[in-house]
Amino acid sequence: MTIIDDAIELENRARIYYTESAEKVADPSGKRILDLLATEETRHADALKNMKTGKYGELASSSLLSEVKGLVEGAVKDGKDAISSDASLREILQQAMEIEQATQKFYEEKGKTAADPKEGELFSFLAKQELGHYLIVSSLAEYFDRPREWVESAEFGLRPEY
Fold first, then answer.
1. Is 85 within the bounds of a domain?
2. Is 133's pLDDT higher than 80?
3. Mapping DSSP to helix (H, G, I), strand (E, B) and coil, where does residue 77 land?
4. Which range of residues forms the domain containing residue 114?
5. 18 with 68: CB under 8 angstroms?
């Protein structure tokens, strides 16, 4: 098994976790967020599969942040106290933080030691993507715990554009 195979396996495990978790969550916003994360992991696995066959395509930046931000802004504007009323979502988000953090570390380590520069570039890019996922998920966990304080967050808060 190669490093790329290991990376594909990590992405597939994350996708499966998000997909199965989305099926357990009753709240539509929670389901949507988990579906978005599963889609992101699928994109990463596809890029890795392409690399394995020698196809080095450009990985576009993710729209995950803007989509999650839109869901949260909608919940806040609708006067909801939380993005989800489903208590199981908090535990799911905690596990997701661990998955994203472990995957990010994997990519950082493998990116530094990659013999192929293109492989190193992809791993570095994926490390940054996974860090972004971690920050989003950890912010959502914080929002789940303290929604009124979270709205003041510089990254997600409702502020006018400059």
1. yes
2. yes
3. helix
4. 3-52+61-150
5. no
